[in-house]
Amino acid sequence: ENFDNLRKSANANLLSGIARDTLFKIITLKDEPLHTISPEDMHISAHFHYPITMKDSGDVSVIMVPRGSVGFWVPLGSAANQDSMFSVPTGHEGFYGLTLDGQLCFEFPQMLQLSLGGGIIACKEKQLFAQRLPTSPVQSVVFPWKTDITKKPGITWYLNAGYQAIDFIKDLTWSMDYSYIVHEQDEITIINNNALAKTAFEKGLPRAHRDSFWKDQQINAGLRYNISSTLSFGGAVQGHLDGVNVFNNTSVLASISLQF
Question: pTM here?
Answer without folding.
Answer: 0.82
